[in-house]
Amino acid sequence: MQSVPMTLNGAEKLRAELTELKSVTRPRIIEAIADAREHGDLKENAEYHAAREQQSFCEGRINEIEGKLSGCQIIDVTKIEPTGKVIFGTTVTMLNLDTDKSVTYQIVGDDEANVTAGKISVSSPIARAMMGKAEGDEIVVKAPAGDVEYEIEKVEHL
């Protein structure tokens, strides 16, 4: 199995969610199931069925997170010597050569991607176009609306 890259911050968020699910959510659901059982006939007990469904979702999410954490390669870009080249985890500021507007993105793992927060997946077309390039390089991103040209202004290890 190939390891999936993940930033240190992304891994910490997953660990925090896992702790929350195991120490807060799971016990609350178990308690809800026990309470619902006390109400008698389980066949027609909506509270029981809802709690069991929540339990199934919770356990599925716990397994999913544990799988992701066990199969990931955590990369802390702040510990990598800056070379000016775009690598996983770097924060890149680019100038759109058509609109003269700058955009800044951090290249993160697939699970961490959130464009509105300025985090793009390492497998996205824009990240693939940037990888290995350096400050001052021009790149062309293949977009559905046509090719977009950018100049890489700044590469930061934040």
Give an overview of the whole structure.
The chain is α/β, with parallel strands linked by helices and 158 residues long. It has two domains: 4-75, Transcription elongation factor, GreA/GreB, N-terminal domain (Helix Hairpins), CATH 1.10.287.180; 77-156, Roll (Chitinase A, domain 3). It contains three helices and seven strands. It has helices spanning 8-37, 46-70, 125-130; strands spanning 4-7, 72-75, 91-96, 102-108, 119-121, 138-143, 146-156. The strands form two sheets. The protein has a five-stranded mixed sheet with strand order 5-4-3-7-6. A hairpin with a 2-residue loop joins β6 and β7 (146-156). α1 (8-37) runs antiparallel to α2. The radius of gyration is 22 Å and the shape is elongated. The two termini are 29 Å apart. The mean pLDDT is 93.
